[in-house]
Amino acid sequence: MSPAKVHRLPLRGARSATTATEPPIHQRVALISGANRGIGLEVSKQLASCGVTVFMGMREPGRNDPAVKAVRALGGEAHALKLDVTRAADVANAIAQIDDRRGRLDILVNNAGGYFDHDARAATPDLETVRGALEVNLLGAWCLTAAALPLMRRHGYGRVVNVSSECATVAMCGETAPAYRVSKAALNAYTQVVAKEMAGSGILINAVSPGWTATALGGSGGRPVADAAEGIVWAALLPEREAGNGAFYRDRARIGW
Length: 257
What we know:
By secondary structure, this protein is an alpha/beta fold. It is built from six helices and nine strands, in the order E-E-H-E-H-E-H-E-H-E-H-E-H-E-E. The longest helix has 29 residues, at 127-155.
């Protein structure tokens, strides 16, 4: 399959409606869901290396969690949070802990995902898989974003990055993995809708495709996880002068979907 068409995004002027200046990077606080491995762990490492305080959401954090230790070993500040994005109590508790400990949230990376149903077919669906994909890939990101936005509004600044997939685009649509594709296409639509609602607030919401990556979900043969995470980190730190909102990116370039 040919890759989705790429449109290079020109620089844009600063938005006059922004309610607050961008905080220094060392003051920024990030929450990354699905941060115990793969792309989520690498995004945590890269953000922490830039000076951002990272809260690493994971379903089963343990004492001396190796993922958190890996981030701290690079000199970053990292904290583990219990976070299953399909559980409303986990979502509420995670945001409450960040509020209690830091009083702000500047970056949210909705990375938690799954249900890559490669061998499934839409004509003969396993509806439990379809519901599971929507619950994690769409509704999980939706609920976590809704919970995070009040903290971002408090300071008039925020960056939300929804980790999506090019397999949800028209250019790369195929018959495999129907639940995964549809859930990611829905995530892209949600990104546009909520970004329009937040326009002028200082909160930018975009989707990013990391591309096929060598992770537990993507399998072997994909690109290195550090390369895949870089575009997500770029969107998480997006300066106002370069700001897109409600867009879909890969490797800093805007793509159609």
